[in-house]
Amino acid sequence: MTTHHTAHAATHDTADATTHALRQPAREPLPLVLAHGAGGGIEANFGPVREALAAGGRRVVGFDLPGTGAAPRATAPLGLDALADGLVAAADAAGLARFAVAGYSLGAAVAVRAATRHPERVGALVLTAPFALADHALRQTALLWRDLADGDRPELVARLLVPLAFGAATLEPMAPEAVEAAVRLTAESVPPGTPEHADLVARADVRADLPRLTVPTLVLSTTEDRLVSPALHRRVAAAIPGARLTELATGHAPFAENPEVWGKLMAAFLEEVRG
Q1: Which of 15-24, 29-38, 69-78, 224-233 shows the lowest mean pLDDT across its residues?
Q2: Nearest to 259 by CA among 58, 103, 110, 44
């Protein structure tokens, strides 16, 4: 009798719980703030995936680094603390109380710092091609990138970055004229704030922030990345408690090489952390 009664009670309780859950209103999608990479912009880096990220009515807000979009160029070297505060100010201006942050490349470092400086505001992180501290290869590239941009040499900036931004599987099948077209387009889109962005790439350090993160975090490693090494992505994921590491077979430009899959991976994770 006891066993039968217990089983009956459990079934009854489960049915009640299911009915109660069905009566609950659907949780609203967590709003999202976008943090772009050095020398990029919200439209350039996230434009191809913005529709996927906004699916289900999610509010999506972009944060422009100084010298990109509508943000004026900085008059002093950039710092992660000020940028993190600026990101939260952009969320304030949009009326967002708690939100996720999707950071790409340098924007991932900004996202991490925002989450540690404002833990009550940031509810989840999506970090694509992140680094906690530049290795020697990235630092030397960033310093050259900074100096070329500061010397108003956008074509040379583009010739430096195009072979590093695209994975070999994307770049090598391209006809020479297509590569030259990519160089021209890149040169035409170098934002004024690029020297300050590249300088920060060489200096940024969020190693101490990573173990302090307590929010759900997805790290997307662009496995053919020749600018920010996948080893740097893996170090970020390993240092964040409970972080999920997912590989994406592109170079450093997933928005150009495979935006459909990149958008789906981010959107699926954000759907998991609704509420």
Answers
A1: 15-24
A2: 44
**For residue 238, which of 258, 260, 221, 259 has the smallest C-alpha distance?**
221
**What span, in angstroms and rounded, lies between the C-alpha atoms of 140 and 33?**
30
Upper half-sphere CA count for residue 144 (Cβ side, 13 Å)? 13
Q: Name which of 22, 87, 29 is nearest 53 in CA terms.
A: 29
Query: Do the Cβ atoms of 109 and 103 come closer than 8 Å?
Result: yes
Residues ≥6 apart with Cβ < 8 Å to 246 = 218, 219, 220, 221, 265
Cβ contacts of 83 within 8 Å, gap of 6 or more? 65, 110, 113
**Pairing state between β 99-104 and 217-222:** unpaired
Q: How does pLDDT run across 39-71, given as a tens digit for each residue?
A: 999 999 999 999 999 999 999 999 999 999 999
Q: Please check whether residue 70 is in contact with residue 93, taking contact to mean a CB–CB distance below 8 angstroms.
A: no
Packing angle of the helix pair 194-203, 136-150 (nearest 10 deg): 160
Q: Cα 194 to chain center, whole Å?
A: 18
CB 157 within 8 A of CB 227: no
* Single-letter amino acid, residue 27: R
